[in-house]
Amino acid sequence: AAAGLMCGLILSLCGKGSRREVLRFGCACLMTVMLLTLLRQAKLPWGDLSLYEQQLALEVEQAQKEYRQALLAETERNLARAIEEQAAALGLTCRAEVVCAADAQGKVTAQWAVLTLGPGESSKAAPLRDWTVAQLGLIKEQVLVEEEAG
Prior knowledge:
single chain, alpha+beta, 3-stranded mixed sheet, 4 helices
């Protein structure tokens, strides 16, 4: 406030002309410096922003983790559905379960599959097992074929 009063007094005494414009610019600079000094020393209401940044980083990480889990579950459901549709095309009744995993880069790969066929259908499972192995990039030992009790 004192700097503003002083600038006003000097400007009123200096008259008109180019000298006044130079003094006006000087006063504007002085007022800016004073304002910045006050802001720098002031305790701002939001305090230390690093705590907010840490909290935000944790929330983003949690959201990414939940997204990856949801994507993994959706991929498992879609692969199981594709197996069940292939089984139906082969004339089989099948309930499929697929378990996948994601690596650090987010690449999803199938780990194993369980094919539960209708009663008496396990003897006709070879084409479905072979299709599942080829489509999911598994080996035969990673595809378990079961038969429902009839």
